Amino acid sequence: MAKFSLNINGKTQEVDVDPNTPMLWVLRDHLKLVGTKYGCGISQCGSCTIHLSGIAVRACMLTVSAVGNQEVTTIEGLSENGDHPVQKAWLEVDVPQCGYCQAGQIMTAAALLEKNPNPSDSEIEMAMNGNICRCGTYVRIKKAVKMAANSES
Amino acid sequence: MTLLKTQIGRRAFIKNTSLAGGGLVLGFSILNSCKPRDVESMAVKEMPEEWFEINAYLKIGDNGLVTIMAPNPEFGQGVITSMPMIVADELDVAWKDVLVEQANFNAEEYGWQFSGGSQGIRRRWEGLRMAGATAKQMLREAAAQTWEVPVVEVKVSEGVLTHKASQNSAGFGEMAAIAAQMEIPEEVSLKEVKDFTIIGNSKKNVENQKIITGKPLFGSDYQFEDALVAMVEHPPAFGLQLKSYDDSEVRTMPGIVDVFKIKTLEDNMKRGYFDTNAFTDLVVIVGNTTWEVMNAKTKLNVEWEPISDSKFIVDRFGTEMEVHIPGGLESTGVHYAKMNEMAATSGTTARKDGNPETAFKTAAKVIERSYTCPFLAHNCMEPMNFFAHVTKEGARLAGPLQAPGLTESTVAARLGIPIEQIDIELTRMGGGFGRRAYGHYAVEAALISQQAKAPIKLVYSREDDMTFGIYRPSYQANYRAALDENNNLIAFHVKAGGVPETPLFANRFPAGAVANYLAQQWEINSNITIGAFRAPRSNFMAGVEQAFLDEISEEAGKDPIDFRLELLESAKNNPVGEKNDYDADRLAGVLKLVREKSKWGESIPGVHRGVSAYFCHNSYAAHVVDVVMDGDTPKVEKVVCAVDCGIVINPDAASNMAEGAIIDGIGNAMYGNLSFVDGKPEQSNFDSYKIIRHSEVPKNIEVYFVENEIDPTGLGEPPFPPVFGALANALYKATGRRHYHQPFANDKPPLVG
After folding, report:
1. How much of chain A exceeds pLDDT 90, in percent?
2. Domain end (from A15, A47, A76)
3. Whose C-alpha in B378, B382, B589, B690 is 20 to 30 A from the C-alpha of B433?
4. pLDDT at res. B45
5. A16 in contact with B at a CB cutoff of 8 Å?
6. Nearest CA-CA partner of B404 in B115, B32, B30
């Protein structure tokens, strides 16, 4: 076990865990930030997507010891009141079905738009391809990403 | 106006009036001892100081806010929004003044709380309307009594009661206390379809705000103080069982609390139809955190041994059947070889019309084709999990279940406690697709909590989830069609079977449309467990039947839609046999609508089209799939879909459901595949099991609903099965190759040279 001081959603959080513990489980089990979801544990589905220094990463294979003092943002910290342009677009398009993958989809989309405010269809597909939606809401996700891009530009 | 005898609410009303001793009914604790979850806040009004319960489905606040209970479990089909919409419309409350709360499991109040078979809206349509209409009538009577005016003169609109002549007006909140004490009306009137104000007008998913902000909603998010985490180890292959285990290394690992084994179902226990389980003997690891238990699981030494042939009794809703489970380690290659052998036998005849043997002998042309599909895993995004806290007082359970009533009885039997001592909280499900009708994981959680004497959360890894079983079976269907010299379809023969069940629907189209018709089936026993998977059996039969009809129409030189419509016209005017289980007009209706909306018949350069139509789960769906070639790779560009499911409650959410079904259909047709070697699934996570991704979905999906006033039927399943056929037919137009074996991505021509 080892003590880590983490910068999560703008707050410092202390945890005492095995250094190999993935951030996914630090967030879910230790910090009760359960918006970040477990889907596969091997970076294949994207349900656990968080931002590490603004970059979308998979929390299931990111060990707590690799985070250091980098800024971590989870779905709970993406915006104050759920009013990030991507979240607003998700509401407007009424994207979710079961909803389980959507936090990961939103985090990937938000990181994409941060880097590329006006992505083309194929850039959206490329960026989002690591996020599986088993319900098949992909068409709406793409529509919401475009809507968010237009609202930001 | 429809007058209906009221059937609901009376019991709840009596109970609550007696509780309140003639006074006001306060609070809303009838559900069970668990505290109600946060209500889904979408209302602009402040929370009321008092709630008045009118019936089990709704309570009215003193300020006019209305809380409506969503009775069925939610797994993405949208019933947490659409069911309250039905209540709200008959109540005549403004939707902005409605809060929605997910009901927990309570069969006494809510009856059959089952999500599956696309039956939710269909079965609850009348009851939900009555719940709203009854409450509205009680409010009107309260107003009439207060104002001393005739009740028929009290009008209601958007939560406001008015009496024109006396110029009285009051919000629901002002009359709620009196209404809660009113007699339940003997009969109530329901609205005409034309008078609906909420039904048919799209409303957003009431849980969206929570979903997009990452609030705890799902079983895996369930929080309970001091709850431990448990994981189970099941055999790595079907045909194996637990022999012994060595936990010495595991017990010393950090965070590990206990290791023991459980038996989910006793060997001699009569099983319910949804108690499906190949792996009843499990090793359990209990620990403090998920990661610690996951690590410990990798260090557990388990010895497995082969199972022998066995049998048990299954109670299929009152009919007992003896089920035989063969020993042995099964492989996919052997399954396909055996299915081919069975397809060469005559099987058992499920339906025969006319004289098919003679018709085939005298035919001008006979077309014969064979189709197969593999096992599929449901792969809900949220792996199986459940919370349980079993104490002397009873069992408190929470988690994702499609059929809580069925799971509860098994939990009660296994724990040896009466069902009255079991509370089940229904969490939002991260997908279901049929998988969560099989509640073995809830039983496991209960047994683990009982043995560990602690609250526990059972967690499945993705690998546990994908390799546990309860799959869509592997099937084969062999078809023959006979054409006369004028290219009329004179005989049709379908013979279908699978491992371990037959997918045949003997009385579906084109039964009834062909004078000489034969439907036969066979089954191969297996120890691999199977279960309902989005549109069970239809999810194979629709696709292959619609692909075969495409070949027949081509052979007959007819347009595929015209060909189907001719057959449907014949089924309508001169039906063969009496048991045809589809409405020919409605099936023709979706074909005509999709023909119009897709501009079928207009040639678009580079676009290759396929069509299909199917009836299942009481609804009708047709698709036109457009495929374009991207180099050598075919891509689905666009899908136009037509659905007839009667009255559509929440149109945009319904479109979302159909879009998802179409993408799910394309994904499973192209890529879905679970294969076995010596009983072991070859795919265990998303690196080996391919799920359709963003870059592979159509750019555009258009969904159209047939407008009618027929009582609503299901939607979660019906648009799914026909996708396989329309896709196969479009791929043929694009590549010149017919696909007979799913998944199509693996169905490559043999290498030449």
Report:
1. 98
2. A76
3. B589
4. 80
5. no
6. B115
Å between A41 CA and nearest CA of chain B: 7
Does residue B491 share a domain with residue B447? no
Quote the number of domains for chain A: 2
Residues A92, A47, single domain; the answer is no
Cross-chain CB nearest to B223 (options A32, A42, A100)? A32
Q: CB distance B381–A39 less than 8 Å? A: yes
Query: For testing the chain B interface, which of A49, A120, A135, A147 should be mutated: the one with the most B CBs within 10 Å?
Result: A135
Which structural domain range is residue A41 located in? 2-76
Q: Which residues of A touch B290 (CB under 8 A)?
A: 25, 28-29, 38
* Residue B570 located in a structural domain: yes
What residues of B are in contact with residue A72 (Cβ under 8 Å)?
none
pLDDT of B44 reads 65
CB contact under 8 A, A35 and B292: no
* One-letter identity of residue B723: V
Q: What is the pLDDT of residues A78-135, one digit of tens each?
A: 999 999 999 999 999 999 999 999 999 999 999 999 999 999 999 999 999 999 999 9
- A39–chain B nearest CA distance, Å: 6
Q: What is the DSSP string of B184-219?
A: PPSEEEEPPGGG-SSTTS----TTHHHHHHT-S-BG
Binding-face residues of A in 32-91 toward B, CB within 8 A? 32-42, 44-45, 47, 74-76, 78, 82, 87, 90-91
In a domain, B168, yes or no: yes
B286 with B370, same domain?
no
Q: Tell me how close the Cα of A71 comes to any Cα of chain B, in angstroms.
A: 19
Is there a contact between B177 and B62 (Cβ–Cβ < 8 Å)?
Answer: yes
- Asked if B521 contacts B347 with a C-beta cutoff of 8 angstroms, the reply is yes
A82 contacts B212? CB cut-off 8 A: yes
* Pairing state between β B422-426 and B394-399: parallel
- pLDDT, one tens digit per residue, over B395-414 is 999 999 999 999 999 999 99
- Domain check: are A9 and A59 in the same one? yes
What residues in chain B have per-residue pLDDT under 50? 1, 7-41
Q: What is the domain-level CATH number for residue A70?
A: 3.10.20.30
Identify from A139, A140, A147 which residue to disrupt to test chain B contact, counting B C-beta atoms within 10 A and taking the largest count.
Answer: A139
- For position B19, what pLDDT does the model report? 33
Q: Please report the pLDDT score of residue B30 as a whole number.
A: 28
CA-based max dimension of chain A: 46
State yes or no: ipTM above 0.95.
yes
Domain termination residue (choose one: B397, B430, B459): B459
- Examine the domain organization and report whether A65 and A27 are in the same domain: yes
Quote the DSSP letter at residue A75: G
Let me know whether B138 and B281 are in one domain.
Answer: no
Residue of A nearest to B534 (CA): A135
User: Where in the sequence is the domain holding B270, given as residue range(s)?
Assistant: 219-311+384-459
Cβ proximity of A76 and B213 under 8 Å: yes
Give the pLDDT score at B37.
Answer: 44
Instruction: Quote the tokens at residue B387.
Output: 């919370």
Count of H-run helices and E-run strands, chain A: 5, 5
CA B108 to chain centre: 23
Distance from CA of B154 to the nearest CA of A (A): 37
